[in-house]
């Protein structure tokens, strides 16, 4: 059985990918000028770097980093079968910064998630622009799973939790049903910890930030649109225009109509 190989243009972060059936193929020692992520489907093998030799088995992954000397080879008694994908560029580096794979420790433990189907997505890539874009999207999807199962310290930092909560509010503020509990459920950390963290990073509580963002958005709509107060209230998450007006005046010292009269851009 031949190794399958697929190529991508220089403009995309995906550069190529393939599948290696179980055999005694080995590579190196040598260096590559791209990242090359390998996922082991079955069997065993070894990755040797200047720092260490890493034994690997089914369900585990290893990364070849650009310009890092490596040598990898199968176990003679149980040779590995694996998929691989090559990629490069600033976007690739950004994604990898959120995964706990480094030149000093370029391997992962086996995870409950089977990545084989995600690696197989790249088989449809070809010369068409939509195929190249799809391949890059597939790579980002694949790496997002690695972020989930093998997050780096950066991906787990406290500011990222607060940022995720803030972005969730800013994307969903228009929903009248949006609650603080929805934010907690989205971020998936303990409620009191998120509240402390959010206030530390953003200077407001979660509920206060939601209200402030709704009022801010209402101000923008009052200045730049002809929406009635009723439509505007609904647009920023309030089903009761009178309650919206009360919240707005408390925050700005103006009723919505007064604010529009004073600040309207003609």
UniProtKB/TrEMBL annotation:
Domain HTH araC/xylS-type: 163-262
SMART domains given in the database record: HTH_ARAC
Keywords of the record: DNA-binding, Transcription, Transcription regulation
Cited CDD domains: cupin_MmsR-like_N (cd06986)
Keyword Transcription: yes
InterPro entries cross-referenced by the UniProt entry: AraC-bd, Homeodomain-like_sf, HTH-like, HTH_AraC, HTH_AraC-typ_CS, Tscrpt_reg_AraC-type_HTH
Keyword check for Transcription: yes
Annotated GO MF terms: DNA-binding transcription factor activity; sequence-specific DNA binding
Superkingdom of this protein's organism: Bacteria
Name of the protein in its database record: AraC-type DNA-binding protein
């Amino acid at each position: 059985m031949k190794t399958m190989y697929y190529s991508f243009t220089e403009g995309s972060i995906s550069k190529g990918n393939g599948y290696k059936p179980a055999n005694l193929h080995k590579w190196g020692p040598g260096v590559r000028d791209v990242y090359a992520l390998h996922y082991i489907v079955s069997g065993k093998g070894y990755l040797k770097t200047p720092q260490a030799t890493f034994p690997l088995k089914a369900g585990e992954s290893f990364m070849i980093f650009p310009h890092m000397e490596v040598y990898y080879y199968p176990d003679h008694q149980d040779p590995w079968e694996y998929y691989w994908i090559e990629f490069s560029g600033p976007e690739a580096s950004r994604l990898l910064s959120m995964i706990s794979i480094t030149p000093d420790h370029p391997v992962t433990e086996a995870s409950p998630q089977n990545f084989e189907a995600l690696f197989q997505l790249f088989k449809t890539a070809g010369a068409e622009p939509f195929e190249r874009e799809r391949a890059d999207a597939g790579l980002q999807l694949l790496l997002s799973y690695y972020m989930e199962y093998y997050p780096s310290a950066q991906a787990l930092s406290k500011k990222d939790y607060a940022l995720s909560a803030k972005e969730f509010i800013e994307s969903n503020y228009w929903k009248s049903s949006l609650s603080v509990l929805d934010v907690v459920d989205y971020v998936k950390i303990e409620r009191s910890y998120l509240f402390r963290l959010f206030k530390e990073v953003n200077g407001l509580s979660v509920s206060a930030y939601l209200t402030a963002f709704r009022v801010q958005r209402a101000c923008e709509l009052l200045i730049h649109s002809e929406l009635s107060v009723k439509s505007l209230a609904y647009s920023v998450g309030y089903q009761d225009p009178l309650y919206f007006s009360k919240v707005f005046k408390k925050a700005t010292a103006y009723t919505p109509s007064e604010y529009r009269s004073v600040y309207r851009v003609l």
